[in-house]
Each structure stands twice: as C-alpha cells, then as structure tokens.
Amino acid sequence: MTEVATARRSRITPEREAELYSAVLDLLREVGYDALTMDAVAARTRSSKATLYRQWGGKPELVVKAMRHSKPGGLRGVDTGSLRGDLHTMVAREDDCTMERNSDLMRALGMAAHGNPDLMRALKELLVEPEMEEFQRVMRRAVDRGEIREDCPALDYIVHMLLGAFAARTLIDELPPTQDFLRSYIDAVVLPALGAPTS
Fold first, then answer.
1. Which of 34, 43, 104, 185 has a CA-to-CA distance to 86 between 20 and 30 Å?
2. What end-to-end distance do the CA atoms of the chain give, in Å?
C-alpha cells in the first residue's frame, strides 16, 4: 500500500511540475494570492484538486514552491573567487523583465503573508531560509578568503540589504529593479558596508 501511494505521489514528471508552477504564477499575476484557489489551479492545469493537495499540501506551499522554481538558482554552485563576482553573477541570472515580474509577485506575496500565517510560514521555510543559507555559505567563503572580517557587523544584514534594495527601488524611485541598479547598489552600498573590495 505504501509503495502504491509513493508511486501515485511521484507520477508528476519534472516537465509537468514546471508546467503547473508556470500556470500557478500566471494565475497569481491575474487574480492575486487571496483570490487564487486550488479549484482554479486544477481547472487551469487540467489536474484534479486531490492531486494538487497530495503533491503540495495546500495553496501556500504550492504558490511558494512555484516562486522558488521560477528563481534562477540563487548562489548555489556560484564561486567566482570573489564576493563581488559572486554577487554580480547572482544579479545576472535574471533578465530585467523577469526581475520586474518576480518583484511584483514577491511584493504581492509579502502583503498577503501579513494576514496569512500559513503563507508566512511557507515563505520563510521554502524561500527565505534556503536563500539565507546560500548567502551564509557565500559570506563564509569571503571571510575565509580574507575579503571580509569575521566580526564585521554588516554580515548579519546582507540579505536585508539586498531585499531592501529590491523592494525600495519600486517604492522610492517608481522603477523596477534592474541588473544595472542592483550591480551599482552592490558596489556602492553592500560591499563597502562589508569592507569588501569593490573592484
């Protein structure tokens, strides 16, 4: 019986999973998180609602995993030999158009998460915490290379700085975040705060 249940759970191919995630993000852009329903996802993807719940447990997990799937991989596997190179490589993984779409989605999810503890938990566990772990590995390498002092107080705020720039770009400048803006921000703000080389 357990083998049958496992077989049922693993029936979705990576291609089908990617198709489902893409449809979820399209729906999210169209109607927003609160109005998005598992019924609508099932209809859009020609899936059964039971399959969606069996695979993802519920809307928060499905939506956040769709967001994570759409991200270009963060810093995992990136090691250019310098902190500046690693951060610039991270920025280069999304073109400006994708960055703008993802910024809009993250802003909408962030707003929705304030009134939804399940979504907040899913965002933290499935998106924020894995990204923070990746950043900590990158920072550790920079410390080991001697680019950053181990006791640098800004080390605890690297993710805050980058997320803040991403969010504040739209709020303050009424412009989307772009590769050029984020590279400039890294060189002008992040690296100096860390005491790391800027060239």
1. 104
2. 59
pLDDT averaged per 10 residues in sequence order, the chain, 199 residues: 41 87 89 90 91 90 86 74 94 87 81 88 86 89 95 92 87 90 96 93
* CA-based nearest residue to 83, from 136, 38, 153, 5: 136
Closest C-alpha among 54, 95, 89, 55 to residue 75 = 89
Of how many residues is the chain composed?
Answer: 199
Q: What are phi and psi of 174, to 5 degrees?
A: 55, 35
Strands (E), 40-175: none
What predicted TM-score, i.e. pTM, was given to this entire model? 0.76
Positive or negative: CA dihedral 195, 76, 169, 179: positive
146-to-89, 195, 197, 199 alpha-carbon distances in Å: 20, 10, 10, 15
